[in-house]
């Protein structure tokens, strides 16, 4: 694997129905909080705080660096241990950006020349429920 086939992002990721969700945002934007909310509704942790994106010919796989596999920060509580998985990247959400449209047009982000749907998710209450349903179906 060459250097162009892996990226380490400051992000969090979970999996629902074997579909990976990449949660983007600045420190304190709620990445871990969203992941924890989704975990309580059946999602599986991929990685918290750092996410490895690895590519092969047709897909991008999300995983955790070895040093933090199975760990997620619960702010004001501590580091929690949970089972972790890897999954194919299916969707990304940016918690730093507001979504002004009630029914937004599709947006995309690109990694390794592959376009991935991107949602804006700043300050959306109950976001975890909508994301779980989106990823399940």
How does this model look, in words?
- With 137 residues, this protein is mainly beta.
- Helices cover 14% and strands 41% of the residues.
- Strands 1, 2, 3, 4, 5, 6, 9, 10 and 11 form a 9-stranded mixed sheet that branches. The chain has a two-stranded antiparallel sheet with strand order 7-8.
- Helix 1 (31-39) packs across helix 2.
- It is globular.
- The protein starts with 5 loop residues before the first strand and ends with a helix.
- The model has no long low-confidence stretch (mean pLDDT 94).
Produce a short descriptive summary.
The chain is mainly β. It contains 2 helices and 11 strands, in the order βββαββββββββα. The radius of gyration is 14 Å and the shape is globular.
Topology (elements, then pairings):
Elements: E1 6-9, E2 12-16, E3 19-24, H1 31-39, E4 44-47, E5 51-55, E6 60-63, E7 71-74, E8 78-81, E9 87-94, E10 107-111, E11 114-120, H2 127-136
Parallel strand pairs: 3-9, 9-11
Antiparallel strand pairs: 1-5, 2-3, 2-4, 5-6, 6-9, 7-8, 10-11
Gap from first CA to last CA: 32 Å
Average pLDDT metric: 94
Number of helices: 2
> What coarse outline follows from CA principal-axis ratios?
globular
Rg over alpha carbons: 14 Å
Unreliable residue runs: none
Count of extended strands: 11
How much of the sequence lies in strands comes to: 35-45%
What is the helix fraction of residues, given as a range? 10-25%
Largest sheet: 9 strands, mixed
């Amino acid at each position: 694997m060459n250097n162009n086939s892996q990226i380490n992002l400051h992000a969090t990721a979970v999996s629902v129905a074997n579909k990976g969700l990449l949660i983007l945002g600045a420190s304190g934007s709620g990445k871990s909080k969203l992941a924890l909310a989704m975990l309580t509704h059946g999602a599986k942790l991929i990685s918290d705080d750092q996410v490895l994106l690895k590519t092969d010919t047709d897909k991008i796989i999300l995983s955790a660096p070895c040093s933090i596999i199975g760990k997620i920060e619960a702010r004001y509580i501590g580091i929690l241990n949970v089972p972790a998985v890897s999954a194919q990247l299916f969707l990304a959400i940016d918690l730093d950006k507001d979504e002004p449209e009630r029914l937004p047009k599709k947006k995309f982000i690109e990694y390794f020349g592959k376009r991935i749907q991107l949602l804006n998710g700043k300050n959306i209450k109950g976001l975890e429920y909508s994301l779980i349903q989106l990823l399940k179906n």
